[in-house]
Design brief:
The chain has eleven helices and ten strands. The two termini are 33 Å apart. By secondary structure, the protein is an alpha/beta fold.
Length: 272
């Protein structure tokens, strides 16, 4: 048995492409449909009710493309709107639990940092899951609210002065507490890994939610015998609710795709 339908992936903006990139690497035969709600980004500063409303609309859009599995490639949705999965007719994978498990495996001193949006931090999702397993762990949280628009604008260079100075402010508590593991709790943040490493050094392990989530997606599809049989070349379709000036540059940076011309179809968000 196999299932050649696409995997559906959504995020508040373009950050979820870092998850799509890891799924693409691990499962090269799989078709992907990606939706980035760039017209309403960021979700991290919205109320819980609004985030859930947006998540349901995003999920319905992906279902209209007959996807076989949906990935909430958004730390905010995974933290506060994961219960939307209850109404879905297909498997649902979020990004919080896989990243927490990876951080617990990685830490040696029990000091784990979480850099995420304010909504994710306020939900307490990462911290609760960590303390459930490591009750004596020290969890240091920081809301990187300004980092999402920086990434959406493409200001992501390892030595970009604006990115570095902004990150220094958010990472200061991590440095003071001596974390040895840092969860990049928003899917926009892996593209800033180089700048973060320049500040924290190589002794701090960075947890990329895309890497750990891709492994879960593979496990779910293997467990249900739903992997693509590879009989055709994988197709990637991209949709967004708005196109910014740095749109294609940002897509290329986040997806890691530089050879092809990437086509992104704009979707009227009011019709979702």
């Amino acid at each position: 048995m196999s299932d050649n339908r696409a995997i559906g992936i959504f995020d508040s903006g373009l950050g979820g492409l870092t998850v799509a990139r890891e799924i693409k690497r691990l499962l090269p035969n799989e078709n992907l449909v990606y939706f980035g709600d760039t017209g309403r980004v960021p979700y991290g500063t919205r109320s819980h009710d609004t985030i859930k409303k947006y998540a349901l609309q995003d999920e319905q859009f992906l279902l209209s493309h007959d996807v076989k599995l949906i990935v909430a490639a958004c730390g905010t949705v995974s933290s506060v709107a994961y219960d939307t999965a209850k109404v879905l007719p297909v498997p649902f994978v979020e990004v919080v639990s896989p990243s927490v498990k990876a951080a617990i495996r990685a830490t040696k001193n029990g000091k784990i940092g979480i850099l995420a949006t304010s909504a994710t931090i306020n939900s307490g999702a990462h911290k609760k899951q960590i303390l459930d397993v490591l009750p004596n762990a020290t969890v240091i949280e920081s809301s990187g609210t300004l980092l999402v628009p920086l990434v959406e604008e493409g200001w992501t260079g390892d030595n970009d002065i604006i990115a570095l100075e902004t990150l220094k402010r958010y990472l200061a508590p991590m440095i003071e507490q001596g974390v040895d593991t840092l969860i990049l709790g928003c899917t926009h943040f892996p593209v800033l890994s180089g700048a973060i490493k320049n500040i924290l050094g190589d002794k701090v392990t960075l947890i990329n939610m895309g890497v750990s989530t891709a492994k879960v997606v593979k496990d779910v599809l293997e467990g249900s015998d739903s992997l693509n049989d590879g009989s055709t070349v994988a197709e990637y379709k991209f949709y967004a609710s708005d196109k910014t000036a740095a749109f294609k540059q940002t897509v290329r940076a986040l997806l890691g795709e530089r050879k092809k011309d990437i086509e992104i179809e704009q979707v009227d968000v009011e019709k979702l």
